[in-house]
Design goal:
alpha+beta, Thiol Ester Dehydrase, Chain A, 6-stranded antiparallel sheet, disordered N terminus
């Protein structure tokens, strides 16, 4: 179900929205570091990342959050339809040093559609079958 082709009546509590999948490679991390100014070596150096106890190079938490936010705006139909968005980071997204990278899958379930036209979503983001975010939620204007 695509937000652009749904009606308000179709958005009901319990509805599961179609999964969105995003690939992250080391090239994405380099571009994100340049855009954000976050050049922490845990995001580009395996030697440094493992030296501080991480399993390898990890994606920026805010990059992961942005990808999940991208899914929310796609479901909402427009960025300005998203009124609130919150997550807690639970597990790092380890990005291998290869051309394939890693995938994040984002799913959502409609928790509630209010009488005043708001939809509350419970979000799940997984990487390799493991949840990478907790208490991920969004509130948006119910798509028409």
């Amino acid at each position: 179900m695509d937000a652009a082709t749904t009606t308000t009546d179709a958005w009901q509590g319990g509805l599961e929205l179609p999964a969105k999948t995003y690939r992250i490679t080391r090239a994405h991390l380099v571009r994100y570091a340049g855009a954000s100014g976050d050049f922490n070596p845990i995001h580009w150096s395996d030697r440094f990342a493992t030296g501080v106890g991480l399993p390898g190079v990890i994606a920026h938490g805010m990059f992961t959050m942005a990808l999940v936010g991208r899914a929310v705006t796609e479901w909402a139909g427009a960025p300005d339809a998203v009124l609130d968005y919150n997550v807690r980071f639970t597990r790092p997204v380890v990005v291998p040093d290869d051309d394939e990278g890693v995938e994040i899958e984002v799913t959502a379930k409609v928790r509630e559609v209010t009488e005043d036209g708001l939809t509350r979503l419970d979000l799940t983001a997984t990487c390799g079958g493991e949840k990478v975010l907790a208490q991920a939620r969004a509130v948006l204007r119910t798509p028409r």
